[in-house]
């Protein structure tokens, strides 16, 4: 039995989806349950030549033996949920907690019409901020009150805790990144709730004493979408010269690229209670590492980077992504 939380250590887009997919295949959980804000965060998973982008379904969906939950704390957009269930073919495996709040069309309209959110903060325009406001005001609609969602509604917290009591393995999947946490991020350029591991546990109704590991995913070259401070940001010319050019899964905006930020990584690891660090994009540090699956295949340049990262983070790096495809990873847990 184990309960593992996987969260992002920088500003999101760290490659959490790929790490979740790998850990799921390796650890064989009976449940993968999502925490986080809602459909304003996208995860990309590449299996072979097929690439999937999901916003509501847990990115561990590629592991076929797990039930897929959306935890109590998450906002659900029924239209996005139904589209994704059909898109990735997971009908019968997806369940949502009846207490999830619903994103309605009026939330999206309010989000996009609000100059502060859309222009100053750089909101994704998916309605999450206004929907969380309504939740706090106690006027939101809950999933249990939406007839079209009836077949998916469960008590996710009860199911997850029952699975842990039976000695099963559970993965709790976070979204976005530490740097845009409402509490710990670069306020006001943040999302509408906390994104740390503690919040992901709370979103799923799992108490802190039941967590075995917290995997924090860091990107060798951090990225950020939208507005807000980014201390190690490069110019586009610098990042393009390194061969790095990325676009957001939800907004399709070009991501801002930065260099490794050891100070932020250490602070993020502390708040998240990191027990295992994951590094993605090591092939951007040295392209000779692309596709490596064994630690012995890493070059001295890559190993030097990992040693510095471990010193900064304060815990061992045990998962190293060497390319976008799910199997391009070194796992020394």
Automatic annotation (TrEMBL):
Keywords: Cytoplasm, GTP-binding, Ligase, Magnesium, Metal-binding, Nucleotide-binding, Purine biosynthesis. It is an enzyme of class 6 (ligase). SUPFAM superfamilies: P-loop containing nucleoside triphosphate hydrolases. One of its GO terms (cellular component) is cytoplasm. Substrate binds at residues 249-255. GTP binds at residues 12-18, 42-44, 255, 281-283, 321-323. It catalyses: IMP + L-aspartate + GTP = N(6)-(1,2-dicarboxyethyl)-AMP + GDP + phosphate + 2 H(+). It is found in: Cytoplasm. GO terms for molecular function: adenylosuccinate synthase activity; GTP binding; magnesium ion binding. Belongs to the adenylosuccinate synthetase family. This is Adenylosuccinate synthetase. It comes from Methanogenium organophilum. The gene is purA.
